[in-house]
Amino acid sequence: MKKYSGFSLFKHSLSHHENWQAAWRSPQPKKEYDVIIVGGGGHGLATAYYLAKVHGITNVAVLEKGYLGGGNTARNTTIVRSNYLWDEASKLYDHSLDLWKDLSQDLNYNVMFSQRGVLNLGHNLQDMRDIERRVNANRLNGIDGVVLNTAEVKEIVPIINDSQDIRYPVLGASWQATGGVARHDAVAWGFARGADSMGVDLIQQCEVTDIVTEDGAVVGVQTTQGFIGSKKVACVTAGNSGVMAAMVGLRLPIESRPLQALVSEPIKPIIDTVVMSNAVHAYVSQSDKGDLVIGAGADSYNGYGQRGSFNVVEHTMSAICELFPMFSRVRMNRAWGGIVDTCPDACPIISKTSIKGLYFNCGWGTGGFKATPGSGNVFAHTLAHDEAHPLAAPFSIDRFSTGHLIDEHGAAGVAH
Amino acid sequence: MHHIYCPYCEEMREEEEYSYTGEAHIERPKDPAAISDEAWADYMFFRSNPRGIHHEMWYHAAGCRRYFNATRDTQSYKVHETYKMGEMPSITAETLAQAKGDAS
Question: Do residues A276 and A79 lie in contact, with contact meaning Cβ atoms separated by under 8 Å?
């Protein structure tokens, strides 16, 4: 792997940037691997990267039915934060935030991580009480956060509607200054390039059609490119996790639903932070290209169609227009849906299963992007040692029968 | 936007009149205290979540305010049928697969 640098950029400019090497190989699958990762999204690629880098396991294949980072990695609103309420979740997401800080240097790939701060708005007294509680819990866990009043919110986002006479007035917000956004595609590509350079095979256009087991243990997967053997198979397939589980007769506490997002036409810089509101199901930031990146709520019903309901988008747009009246005439360019794997307690499942050698990393629901590096990091540990990473241990699938649920609907929560 | 036929109102109505209330035909264990934690978790949290034919409950919130069942394809979003509580679906993944087999 050739290192990217200012010098290499200059050197390649002399040949009109026509001679850059490919960022990764496109190998044929081998007969057998030490670990097969199903799903070439951000989480799967990060898992492969950390397996190779931290644990020295490089005989690994990532199988992707479409192209790398083409699912939810390409469809989210790129928000990164760690202000979750409960100890277990806040530690996991903060571990991820720590990794984000050095990720561009670590990968030698600019993931454009920008810590521009995240506001979570409160619109009624109960919202503000919940925000106070969450910020206090965050600070006890060493995560920065402050509670802001309306005037302080207005100072950070001058264009916000601070009228107290609207249906959902802005009474205040929580503010995590270390939160922000990152370039979603670059995260997948950076992890892919890093993993590939250490010997991981990234195999695209390769759909897993069956998981093959013998005597309660995994022996490999059947794919559209034939059988590939491995004693460890890790499913990192987000919305399709239930479909994967059904291949071996398992069920998961997960329902898959479309979550929508949309972007506007590019406009001049107008909003330099991230504004989120759980109550009205809307969140907005501005990309470096100038588009407003807007997220909506999830549909209420199960679906795999990668498109959502009109009434959900309409609801979000009316909320955005009330919060930012000046956006009312901005035209929207594109809208799409991603299939999110929602858990009853809005927390992920990072777990072994009752089948030996079969692992699941799923259930990230509506907020998986922010966890990409952390999720891969702890899941790689779980795969390498066949034992949960300490940060991942509370997220075992056993919690649904022991009752140790981690209810993050408040913090995870933009219905979302 | 779905148009869903309410089997009680006997009319097609818009999606916004309804709320979705999850997988259908899940029976509450008769004696919860007698079953294992795993069996209770299975009833409480674990779902089939198929990509394809799904039997699910809907609530006609802005209409007759009654629950009913629907058979819907979660990939194409086609609503194959709706039927009253207590009834069983006439269309399932198996009957559709069979019909497809007969046609070809």
Answer: yes
Element (H, E) at A49: helix A42-55
Tokens 């929580």 label which residue? A174
Return the closest-CA partner of residue B5 out of B54, B56, B58, B73. Answer: B58
Q: Are B62 and B73 in contact (CB under 8 A)?
A: no
Neighbours of B7 (CB within 10 A): 19
CB atoms within 10 A of CB B43: 14
Report chain B residues whose CB lies below 8 A from the CB of A253.
Answer: 41, 45-47
**A184 in Cβ contact with A73 (< 8 Å):** yes
Residues in A closer than 8 angstroms to B41, CB to CB, are: 253, 400-401
The per-residue pLDDT for range A148-188, each reduced to its tens digit, is: 999 999 999 999 999 999 999 999 999 999 999 999 999 99
The stretches of A141-183 forming alpha helices (DSSP H) are 150-156
Enclosing domain of residue B95: 3-103
3 state DSSP class of A287:
coil
CA angle A404, A407, A411 (to 5 degrees): 150
Which CATH number does the domain housing residue B50 bear? 3.30.2270.10
pLDDT-above-70 percentage for chain A? 99
Mutation to test the A interface, candidates B4, B18, B42, B51, most A Cβ within 10 Å: B51
- Mean pLDDT, range A300-308, rounded to an integer: 90
Q: A413 falls in which pLDDT band (50, 70, 90)?
A: low
Chain A interface test: which of B49, B59, B69, B72 (most A C-beta within 10 Å) = B49
Distance in angstroms (rounded) separating the CA atoms of residues A32 and A47: 19
Q: How far is CA A221 from CA A104, A214, A242, A244, B69, in A?
A: 33, 12, 16, 11, 36
- Average pLDDT (A334-345) is 94
Across the interface, of B20, B22, B75, the residue whose CB is closest to A305 is: B75
Residue of B nearest to A249 (CA): B48
CA-based nearest residue to A283, from A109, A61, A79, A133: A79
The residue among A415 and A205 whose pLDDT is bigger is A205
Select the more confidently predicted residue: B103 or A93: A93
Q: Give this prediction's pTM.
A: 0.95
Give the model's pLDDT for residue A309. 87
Q: How many domains would you assign to chain B?
A: 1
B interface mutation test: which of A401, A404, A406, A407 has the most B CBs within 10 A? A401
Answer whether B20 sits within 8 Å of A301, measured CB to CB. yes
What distance in Å separates the CA atoms of residue A334 and residue A315, rounded to the nearest whole number? 17
In angstroms, the separation between the Cα of residue A305 and the nearest Cα of chain B is 5
